[in-house]
Amino acid sequence: MSQQEFWNSKFSRDGFLYGIKPNTFLASKIKLLKRESDLLCIGEGEGRNAIFFSKRGFNVSAIDASDIGLKKLEQRAKEENLNINTFCQDLNTWESNKKYDVIVASYLHMYREERAQLFEKIEESLNQDGYFIGEFFSTKQLDFNSGGPKDEDLLYTVDDFKKSFLYCDKDISEQEVILDEGKGHQGDACVIRVVIQKL
Ligand SMILES: C[S@@+](CC[C@H](N)C(=O)[O-])C[C@H]1O[C@@H](n2cnc3c(N)ncnc32)[C@H](O)[C@@H]1O
Q: Which of 127, 130, 146, 170 ranks highest by number of CB atoms within 10 Å?
């Protein structure tokens, strides 16, 4: 089953699987960022982060493999009178022809062997001083039942990020947190949080 089929079936249900509020960690980093800058959400699903940043004056674009997720994002954007560019695309074939000031991701479950290439493209797509901010499930999430894949190849370690992003300043940590994000993420969890700035 492709990522698109998998996520389309999840997002076909009524409501928003991870709620309508943004990921708390991404939202908390808004103070680092300049309003009106170009911000790209990758693996954005039903759009909770895109809506949050768009409402606060960022020029937001969003990529996801799921057209059904993106339709929900577009519907919310229309209701809220927001202008968000959406691209239905697999990140493995994404070729960015534009640079961004900020790239954000929450719970993008890419396979281990896909990450080096994606991280390289993220670094390339950032303007100087631009930020990549993300929250991902740690491999330790296998011990928790608050959401996320039960496949270690889709989970992350601090080292996954340390060995990439060579020309960046990196703040990467593994943390135990309590998630309250729709039906999809509820309860104690172990995550990797990254704030990476291109030098
Ligand atoms: C767990 S959901 C998280 C959605 C959103 N970031 C959030 O936190 O609400 C994972 C998302 O990543 C997307 N995704 C997974 N692999 C992808 C890929 N290779 N290319 C594009 N999107 C992908 C899925 O379609 C899905 O929307």
A: 130
